[in-house]
Amino acid sequence: MAEITLIEGVTQALAWEMRNDPSVVVLGEDVGVNGGVFRATVGLQEQFGPWRVIDTPLCETSIAGLTVGMACQGLKPVAEAQFEGFIYPMLEHLMCHAVRMRNRTRGRLTCPLVVRAPWGGGIRAPEHHSEANEALFANVPGLRIVIPSSPARAYGLLLAAIRDPDPVIFFEPKRIYRQYKEEVSDDGEALPLDVCFVLRDGRDVTLVSWGATIKETLEAADALEAEGISAEVIDVATIKPLDFDTIHESVAKTGRCVIVHEAPKNVGVGAEIAARLAEQAMYDLLAPVERVTGYDTHIPLFRLEMKYLPPVGRIVEAAKRTLAA
């Protein structure tokens, strides 16, 4: 079993599914000859040809429209938006057509498409290259939002996303694209969508996160463990639909919850989880829910970028506040 990075997990999943399903096509700016801006599609055009790995003009609107048309006519397109901050021109096609196709045609047509987008900050990129706006997309009915946090989950969840009959946005945390490797079997086995992954058992506090901040959350759990505090760590993975049952089960055990994400706090996905805990788990809570997030501003350029992203220390302090409450 080979050790691979997260971005290599993406590449392997695309290659596996293209080998085994001739209806899968890849399209986007520079995905063919150049292998993508982050090299996620490197080598695919040589293996599968220019009719299945399609270089497009620099025009996100046309990529989205082409993707929706392909999906409605029997193909399974996987489009790449080079950066999440440039995905907004795609919204008209995704929100007005892709997510409505099943309902609009009373089930006669589905729209099995995936839009992949490098997501989040932490690589010293310029403006529009470090967005983390998953809450914006989670508010769209009919759109599934997936954010992997490890090479294995990138591989397994992308396979599941491509095989899903409805539209999926696959946000890839580029800060951890090449941060570490783990063993992943290239066997075509998908992981389940719409479920949280419990990465670490604990009894005192529940830490909930997704994407790149899983790394800092696990490090915070280690720091808490050194002080005798047992933290359970949950990777949400599928932002929408949300597997709230797994989060509720953990909070019923620990009585405390800290939600960690790099997107702004205001109206974020963390707010949705906190609201559901207030609605459905109020009597299980022993302390107010804490949120450790980015700030309600555009993510700053590189000199201040790491001060914007939630560090381990803020997560540890939040967990201790819940224990002291």
Question: What does this 3D model show about the protein?
Answer:
This protein is of the alpha/beta class. It contains twelve helices and 14 strands. A seven-stranded mixed sheet has the order 3-2-4-5-7-6-12, with helices on both faces. It has a five-stranded mixed sheet with strand order 9-11-10-13-14, sandwiched between helices. A two-stranded antiparallel ribbon has the order 1-8. Helix 1 (6-20) runs parallel beside helix 7 (151-163) and helix 8 (213-226) packs across helix 12 (312-324). It is globular. 49% of the residues are buried. The model has no long low-confidence stretch (mean pLDDT 95).
> How much helical structure, as a percent, in the residues?
25-40%
Low-confidence sequence ranges: none
How would you spell out the order of helices and strands? Answer: EHEHEHEHHEHEHEEEEHEEHEHEHH
**What class do helices, strands and sheet pairing give?**
alpha/beta
Q: What does the largest sheet look like?
A: 7 strands, mixed
Compute the number of helices.
12
- Average of per-residue pLDDT values: 95
> Roughly how many Å is the radius of gyration?
20 Å
Report the end-to-end length measured between terminal Cα atoms.
46 Å
What percentage of amino acids are in beta strands? 15-25%
- The strands making up the biggest β-sheet line up spatially as 3-2-4-5-7-6-12
- Please give the number of β-strands: 14
Tertiary shape: globular
